[in-house]
Amino acid sequence: MLENNTLKVLFVYNKKAGKKYEPSIVDRIKNTLPSNFEVSFIDIRDFVNFKTKKFDMLVAIGGDGTVNTVASRCTKQNLILGIIPKGSGDGLARFLGIPRDLSSAISIISTGKVITIDTAKVDKHFFINVAGAGFEAYVAHKFGLAGIRGLRGYATTILDSFSTQEEQEITLTLNGKKTTLPFFSLSIANGSQWGNNFEIASEADIQDGMLEVAVMRKPKWHQLASLVFYLKSKKQENNALFTYYKASEIDLKRSGKLWHIDGEPVILRNKKRITVYPKSLNVMVR
Length: 286
Description:
This protein has helices at residues 24-32, 64-77, 91-95, 102-111, 135-146, 150-162, 224-232, and strands spanning 7-13, 37-43, 57-62, 80-85, 113-122, 125-127, 130-134, 168-174, 177-183, 185-189, 193-195, 198-199, 211-216, 242-247, 249-253, 258-261, 264-267, 272-285.
């Protein structure tokens, strides 16, 4: 719980996150928080040029992309990040144990504790949860265009895209050690999951100064059902489809230009450098 007489908190909401934005969220927040909270609200579309240094905490109301944008500002200005998950997957919120129930999430803002976690960058692109290339990046790009939100939208996009994508070859340099291997999908994980409780790296520790690197081969059609179970098992380890590494310094060649950064599609060209920034962000949790 924060120790301060008056807490200045800015809530940054994304009306396009998840399936439907509920305007009543603003009133519920105002009516729930203690009287010593001085609250303001802003649409994320107006956030870029908005001055935030006067605030103690910035709260992201939205999905992982919204959290990424707000967390980046918190890191730069040493502000506390709060999260009210309202996205399609909410991978970071689920990893941190922040419930999707609105009342419970608001309660954490006022009565939770502050922990300090790692962040990372792919070249100059900040991320807090998972960045990736290959199939998962292709899905992120297609999902962004499809207009179908939620788990159903992801499932439809994945099935439509699976047969069109093939394995490639990637070269990773991990803490100075180079290796080349085939890959279908690549995850660089600070948190453990993509979202919707689908985990890609159960060993991820967001406070250890390291990143999990998950390299996936292309599964056969008959392996898809067991793959879903595997991603729900919270017991990810090396097997026929996955190879895992842990590193603090990562260089990549031939990963392709399609990437996602916390689920948001981006185009990155040439070789990539991934850098981790240990204990660089304060965040409110239960």
